[in-house]
Amino acid sequence: MELFHLRYFLAVADELNLTRAAARLHLAASPLSRRVRDLERELGAPLFTRSARGMALTAAGRALLPRARDIVARVEALPGALAAADGHPVVVVGMAPDVTAAVRDGFLERLRAARPELAVRIRPGTSAELARAVARRELDLAFLHGGSDDPGLTVRRVDTRPAAVAVGHGRGFDDRTEVRLEELAELPYVSIRYDAAPAVYRATGELLARHGVHRRIELDTHNPGDLTHVVAAGEAFTLVGLGSGATHKAFVGEPVHVLPVTGAQVRLGTDAVWRGDRAADPGDVVGVLAAAAGTPTGPVA
């Protein structure tokens, strides 16, 4: 058994879908399935049930899950532990795709000024998976969207900025400098999977519905770049950060208009999230990270 077997098992256990787990791991589904079956053979027990309705963990899978998480977390913590023993402690910070460069760079600058001996590893991910990783102590702090309803996590809003509409050329907005949401009622709204940031997509859906936009396309992906093909083809519109963020950058050079929204408050907030019990410990570096995360740079509404 290799460590990658456990990493693959954890991805499939989190997603309960081979295609999504494979995309998360940057693999094809077929080799991932083979690796999981190799692990099942080695352990002598099925870890998942597979049916037309999807996948589920077996009793053996549920028993393995916390142990696999612990093993992988311990191995991943080794570089940081060794660096700390050598006087160069490492902290791991999560970043959701649409966190702005200003938020990221401001945090790193403040942290280096306060604790120059700290080395920082950045871990990208969706907001939902980063929040779970903070709760599991795999991350020291994360910047994400939509906060968290986990009572063990502390959430601080550190940034909010306007969002804009991305809509393809030839959809009736070619000579426009702004757009009202009501004008988009004939087009579907396209997004990545809602489970990437459930609170954000729930609020977005409610906002669009209030303005008469009811049609939806949810792509089976967590990659914001996949939105470009659908929007550029004129099949749908989406919302992007105005002037920044990974989703906005994905549309650079595409035959797409990015238009500010008028008549509605459409904003994307960024939250810093950390474990409250760790910040309360004076010997834990999380308190330093929380201080470096900063305070809101704009209105939080």
UniProtKB/TrEMBL annotation:
Instruction: Give the family from UniProt.
Output: Belongs to the LysR transcriptional regulatory family.
The name under which this protein is listed is DNA-binding transcriptional LysR family regulator
Q: What is the lineage of its organism?
A: Bacteria, Bacillati, Actinomycetota, Actinomycetes, Pseudonocardiales
Task: Name one cellular component (GO) term.
Answer: protein-DNA complex
The protein's matches in InterPro entries, at most eight in alphabetical order, are given as:
LysR_HTH_N, LysR_subst-bd, WH-like_DNA-bd_sf, WH_DNA-bd_sf
A GO molecular function term, named singly, is: DNA-binding transcription factor activity
Q: Which domain of life is it from?
A: Bacteria
Q: Could you list this entry's UniProt keywords, alphabetically sorted.
A: DNA-binding, Transcription, Transcription regulation
Which residues belong to any copy of the HTH lysR-type domain? Answer: 1-58
